[in-house]
Amino acid sequence: MTRPDAPPGAVRQGSLREWNLALLLDRIAAADRPPSRAELAADTGLTRATVSAVVEDLLAGRLVAEAEPTPRAGAGRPSRGLVLATDGPAGLGLEVNVDYLAACVVDLAGRVRHHTVHRADLRPVSPAEALARLADLAARARADVAREGLTLAGAALAVPGLVDAAGLVRLAPNLGWRNVPVPALLAEGTPLTTHVDGVPPLVVDNEANLAALGELHAGPAGRASFLHVSGEVGVGAGIVLDGSLFRGTRGWSGEIGHLPVRPDGPTCRCGGRGCLETYAGQEAILAAAGLAGADLPADTATTRLAELAEAGDPAVRRALAEAGTALGVAVAGVVNLLDLDTVVLGGGYAPLAPWLRPPVLAEISRRVLTAAWSPVTVRPATLGATAAAVGGAGSVVRRILAHPAGWLARPS
Amino acid sequence: MTRPDAPPGAVRQGSLREWNLALLLDRIAAADRPPSRAELAADTGLTRATVSAVVEDLLAGRLVAEAEPTPRAGAGRPSRGLVLATDGPAGLGLEVNVDYLAACVVDLAGRVRHHTVHRADLRPVSPAEALARLADLAARARADVAREGLTLAGAALAVPGLVDAAGLVRLAPNLGWRNVPVPALLAEGTPLTTHVDGVPPLVVDNEANLAALGELHAGPAGRASFLHVSGEVGVGAGIVLDGSLFRGTRGWSGEIGHLPVRPDGPTCRCGGRGCLETYAGQEAILAAAGLAGADLPADTATTRLAELAEAGDPAVRRALAEAGTALGVAVAGVVNLLDLDTVVLGGGYAPLAPWLRPPVLAEISRRVLTAAWSPVTVRPATLGATAAAVGGAGSVVRRILAHPAGWLARPS
């Protein structure tokens, strides 16, 4: 048995009960099939009596549930396995992007139980107004899942920009936001979530970071390392090293959209020149394809580009080849620098992967010193456009699982 | 008191004595002034008797020594503080570069006790011949420090190329090496070092990695994060995150020299085009300054460039400004990606820093999204050209300090 990392709260408070709650919850979450109490005792080295008492707490607190009994060979009662509850605490994931708002709810078992996307060009809208609309989406999500017995224990909000530790958005260039105090504006009226000790009510994070976390959790458990590139109006990256998101010194890593592809190229919204975004951002691709000004919402634009490319439209094919080459130049630089063996094309790039992947691979094989010995995998994201909100909600769920005592001790 | 990370060997063997040896050695190494046995007992929570016994072992094994006694206020014997020994085990650092070989020895206290540089253009020389010459340098270093009572307990060799875990140099493009089995060739005759359990006799590593480690150990203790760029004929980087070298999935991180500055630029030795090395490698700078073909050894070339720049030579100034701009474009990309707040100009860049730094800073402020809120420091390396060999020798010393029992148990 591998013990999970000690949940910080549990160790700080030094309580054996908290440790045992987190340990058994971890074993139930990690099991291939619902484990019985006896199997949990064998797995953890705890006594059967301790396991039974802890499981009673987890059942009473709606953190786990008993699976349907499976008939057992031989005599005796059928064994009842334990599974994560799907009617207890849940995480709320939110996203503000340039042309949509999204809210989703993920339950303890990792299932998406609610997902709403509200499409609108948010550039002309004030941050306060955009966040008020998002609070409405959140309230609807909360009411919707409450009917199924779920309680929102925390929220994570994805923003396409630089966020500091207090949730202040320093800069979101494509939204035109500067120094926006998101938590104050978003939770101005009623709080979005129920207070649970150990789970922050609202974490604000960079969209590309949460999308990479979504992709990480959607994949097989383990210590994956990959670069997740999200292509929207802006282009961002999440760097996952050994199963953890790498955030950088101040939490501002991953700004691949501002890697210079041609140092004297077109001026970028960031003030630099020739940034990747000016070649492979969604607006650059649409302009190169002769579709600028079509004013399509992001996912429609992506769908339209994919349809036209599929149909063989030469201008669209050329635009995607050029964007893929620029993306490949930047990605090859990242691979040379960080020695990663997997690149995930996420967000709006996921549906365009059939056309972006070949030029990205071509640049990698031209420019990455080590490509000859160990090929780099380039693949579309599993989650695509929903990754950031799902990743945010999932990050809340992981906090609950790591600190179940906080949930059990919540005021009723 | 902060306990050091458990030394892997000690924990594996589960011996309390090994743990106590490593613990006290760590406290002696970390102390501001030589601690007494009583201070060590208070610091670690061990009994005075245990401390005395362990210190006896450390003294007998020449891992620590007693400092000169300092007179103490009040009655009693003067207290005798303990320091790391400077006549016991030491680390050997070696380097093969394009135009020099180097060997250095660092003692337990971190002092450089021997340093030889042998200048020669090694490109026309076979790997076997180059390594034979290096083995000679190593033998001379060993004999030299043996006279001062030092024993070489392990070696680390820096190579400007991609090295695998077994020490095979897959590719060193500027040396023209491919698949060179360095350990076999280098230690063909007699082994370079005395066998010590827990200390590999020879580690082969990338030059930029070892140079970054050298810089890390030369700075104040702590969890520093920085990008160390070594400018030689090739350009490499070592990425230090939170006080540790980041090596990437296969140990091949840091190839900043092959970050594309202009994707359609000059062809690079790596096969790519417009790599940083083609703009800011030493040969590119010499060519731009009108000094190509002068065929100066690396540090002479650097010294010459610095002298001419100091004297105001316009062609040299222009060449350095252009190289600095290209370096700044690449470094800005890295800072956008990894959110590092310190960039160290190392190797041949260190003496050229007065002229490279301004254009690097200009590109950072133009291109790094977050530069407005948190300025990036760009500074010359402390160690400069010797960093890789010193860093390699230092890495051996750190292994000895983490695993003193291996040294104490060596066959005499």
From TrEMBL, chains A, B:
<dbReference type="InterPro" id="IPR036390">
    <property type="entry name" value="WH_DNA-bd_sf"/>
</dbReference>
<keyword id="KW-0808">Transferase</keyword>
<dbReference type="GO" id="GO:0016301">
    <property type="term" value="F:kinase activity"/>
</dbReference>
<dbReference type="InterPro" id="IPR000600">
    <property type="entry name" value="ROK"/>
</dbReference>
<comment type="similarity">
    <text>Belongs to the ROK (NagC/XylR) family.</text>
</comment>
<dbReference type="InterPro" id="IPR036388">
    <property type="entry name" value="WH-like_DNA-bd_sf"/>
</dbReference>
<keyword id="KW-0418">Kinase</keyword>
<dbReference type="InterPro" id="IPR043129">
    <property type="entry name" value="ATPase_NBD"/>
</dbReference>
<dbReference type="Pfam" id="PF00480">
    <property type="entry name" value="ROK"/>
</dbReference>
<protein>
    <submittedName>
        <fullName>ROK family transcriptional regulator</fullName>
    </submittedName>
</protein>
